[in-house]
Structure formats: C-alpha cells, structure tokens
Amino acid sequence: MPELPEVETVVRDLNKKVRGAVITGVWFDWPKLIKHSSAPASREFHPTASRDFVSFVTGEKIVAIQRIAKNIIIHLSRNKTLLIHQKMTGHLLIGKWEIRGGKVLPIAPKAIVEDSYNGYIHLILYLDDGRMLALSDVRKFAKVIAGTKDEIMGLSELTNLGPDALDSKLTSAGFYSLIRTNGRTIKQVLMDPNVIAGIGNIYSDDILWRAKVHPLTRANRIKPAEMKAIYTAMRTILAKAVELRGTSTSDFRDTAGLEGGYTGQRLVYGREGVPCKRCQTPIKRIKVGERSAHFCPRCQQI
Questions:
Q1: Where are the beta strands (DSSP E) in 128-278?
Q2: Candidates 226, 291, 297, 298; catalytic one
Q3: Among this protein's residues, is 17 annotated catalytic?
C-alpha cells in the first residue's frame, strides 16, 4: 500500500501538473470504485453513485490537492471535493489513453506505455488541455468518494486520524506521549493511523532498524532515549523517502509512471537474508500480527 512518501509524491505532482485544469469528461469500468459521501458508514456501493459522479465532476476546475495521511484530497470548484484512497495497488497517472473495443490503450508518456504495472486503468478524468488523470489499480480496492468539502472533511477516515508523521507541530515529546502507554508492539503502534498517520509496513521496518528497536518490543516498555531515536528516525527516513519520490517494491508508480527512488535505499524492508548494513548479520523476517516485519537480530535485540 502506498504510504506517506508515495502519497505525498503524487499530491505534489498533481499540484504542479493539473491544478487549474477543468474536468471535461469521465470514463470508468468499475462502478464500485465510486462512493457517495452521503452513503452509509459502511461505504457500501450506492446504486446511483457512479451515474451521479459523472455529472458531479464534469465541468469543475481542480482548485487544489492535499494529502491527509494516505488520502488524496482533490478540491474542485463550487465547493466540491474528492477523496481518493489508493489502497493496496492503486496509483494515479497523468497521460493519454485511448478506449478501443472496450480496452484502454496507453499512448503517452513512455513509462506508462512500457510498464505493465501502469496498465490496469479503471478511471479516467479528461482534462481541458487534452491530458488525462487516470487511476491504475490491479486489485480494484481503491476508492473515490465524492461530496461537498464539508462532507468529505468530516468523514471518519479523516477525523479519527492521529497526527501526521511529518507534521511540523509533532514534537519528540508529543510523539512519546502518544505511544508510551500503548501495550501493543511498537511495529503495530507505528502502523496504526489512529495513533500516528502515514506509516505502513515499509517505513516502520526501516524506522525501527535505524533506531535499533526490535519490532516486537512493547511500546509501553520503550525507554525515553529509544523513543527519541524512533522519532528522529521517523522524521529522517520519511523526509528522505519523499525526496526520493517513494518506494516501488511492488505496484507504486508516480504520476509519470516511474518507480520511486527509495526502493534501492531500503534499510531492511524486503531484505530478508541480506547482510545488515551495520553489522552484516542476515536480516530476518517475522510476523507481527498479520504483517511481516524485517529486522536485524543483532542490532535490534528485544
């Protein structure tokens, strides 16, 4: 799943490339992708949502795009807003496609045409300058919720979030206060968006390796010095990953269809059996809850 650095990369791209553009049309082939902000809390598919979505966005200008945790918020004219969550395998692309015989054929740019990970287009927003904003999602788990700005910003998936992991107002002391009484493993706590928003499997592993903390350590047993090390590692690693435009160990691509540069900079995630970058001990992988955790058994002792 795209984490904070990947979503931030997409949002920065969108603000540079499509802010100010007008949506002139819509194509999609997976109606369950589209939700109404007024739908039940379960977000079950609303039978008229997909039909209404076309009229809702057509003719509207893209005013601004922001990131809230792992959510992409697209503000349109006339107080309309879209929330896009890319889920497991979704990513937004800017390019050109042709619909022929029910198939979506990529035309440009080159990376979108040549990389098969960009070939699962299920939604296209046509823009007034001839370009298109599309969603590729092989597993079809992504969602788009449409509503007024107040409706979208009031959704529980936004209002129940903890502070953003890169929020300038989040101090080391504030981070410590969020975590110090939690009895779960530190890996689970870091990945809980209701505690701290934006961190997933990839960056939690690298953060804990850098801080020399075992992923199974209970958060309420972590010493203040270790907690400060985790906080510092979190800020450093996420900032670096944003600078390098995210990680592409699987499906993530940026809006041009290109892989993220942090992929080759990973410290432990996905490196099972590879020598630790500090002590050369082979990296191990274990299960923490239902997720994998990669760590160095020598550098990160419990």
A1: 132-137, 143-148
A2: 291
A3: no
